Amino acid sequence: MNKIVTFGEVMLRLSPTGYNRLFQNDNLQATFGGAELNVAVSLAEFGEDVVYVTKVPDNQIGDGAISNIRSFGIDTSAVIRGGSRLGIFFLEKGVNLRPSVCIYDRNYSSIQQSDVSEYDWDKIFDGAKWFHFTGITPALGENLVDICLKACKKAKEKGVTISCDLNYRSKLWEQETAAKTIKKFCPYIDICIANEEDAQNYFGLSAANTDVYSGVINKDGYENIAKELVEKYGFKYMAFTLRTSISASVNKWAGMLYDGDKCYFSKEYHIDHIVDRVGGGDSFGAGLIYSLINNYGAQESIEFAVAASALKHSIEGDFNRVTVKEVNDLLQGDASGRIKR
Which among 187, 141, 193, 142 has a CA at the least distance from the CA of 166? Predict the structure, then answer.
């Protein structure tokens, strides 16, 4: 097993049952989620040694979050207790022509009230091989920018590989601030992960002849962006998820990995019925981390990451509850959905 550290905010997710609208009835399902936690759970399900770092309130809600995280075998010894509250997000799952809707209620959360002095990164990274965070965490405040930068500097000092999923969130910060901030992290990032729109939002780069809203994806355009970003910032790898959205229920799903020399494209999966797409990008990131840390080749790595995240679209909740064997079964062509007895 490889020791992998992830850092970010765990939140309480409240969702209507099925594909109901918010408050269409009096039922809301309560689960936990959050980008870096989603990655941690996937990696733990793949059998890796995962440490999740966050801050949660010292009350029953914080207890519930920690208990849930521990149930996946994740090390929570570096979780800090304190602050006012756990962040919440309301998720209304889209279907057919109606898109999903995410509403944040995370101001004054415990992690937003973190101080840089609370995190002993030297101890946290002892024996670690990999550190993962996303662009969501520094979007929570200047103190989180400082904390993430300190983590990156310590990880570099200790020879820990760093991955970042850019994850631009327009509801958390303005584009100009986001672009200025994320560039502070680029010199530390070894593996940069993005979706179809992140390059535009952070770096002002658009893939030629691509329109994500009409479902047109030009692979050559993303190859050009990857080459430009790797040349400018020195990333070892640049990865993109490539989602063609036909509707909220039907997507085509693929990915690309650039290693500084060659671009590798995965098989494209046609997902005819999306159960829950939240966490799809996180499961891609987890699949990429797992394959790279276990010395898969570039083509094998992008195929594994995309297959893992394709399976996530069939699972309720933020977490990708699949094993390496299940991903490999899909990679070997077992996509019929026939019952296994």
Answer: 193
pLDDT tens column, 136-181? 999 999 999 999 999 999 999 999 999 999 999 999 999 999 999 9
Exposure class string for 103-131: b at 16+ Cβ within 10 A, else e: eeebeebbbbbbeeeebebeebbeebbbb
Q: What is the pLDDT of residues 69-80, one digit of tens each?
A: 999 999 999 999
Whether 23 shows a pLDDT value over 90: the answer reads yes
List all residues 6 or more positions away from 73 whose beta carbon is below 8 Å from its beta carbon. Answer: 44, 50
Residues 122, 124, 128, 130: what is their CA dihedral angle, to the nearest 10 degrees?
-100
0.90 exceeded by the pTM? yes
Cα 26 to its chain centre, rounded Å, is 30
Cα–Cα distance for residue pair 15/27, rounded to 1 Å: 8
| Pair of tokens at residue 155 | 């990880």
Q: Give strand pairing partners of 15.
A: 29
Give the Cα separation of 169 and 94 in Å (integer). Answer: 18
Return d(Cα 281, Cα 139) in angstroms, integer.
18
How many secondary structure helices (H) and strands (E) does the chain include? 10, 15
Cβ atoms within 10 Å of 133's Cβ, excluding its own: 28
Q: Are strands 3-7 and 80-81 parallel, antiparallel or unpaired?
A: unpaired
Rounded to whole angstroms, the Cα distance separating 78 from 73 reads 14
Residues 303 and 331: beta-carbon distance below 8 Å: yes
Could you tell me if 309 and 253 are in contact, meaning their C-beta atoms sit under 8 angstroms apart? yes
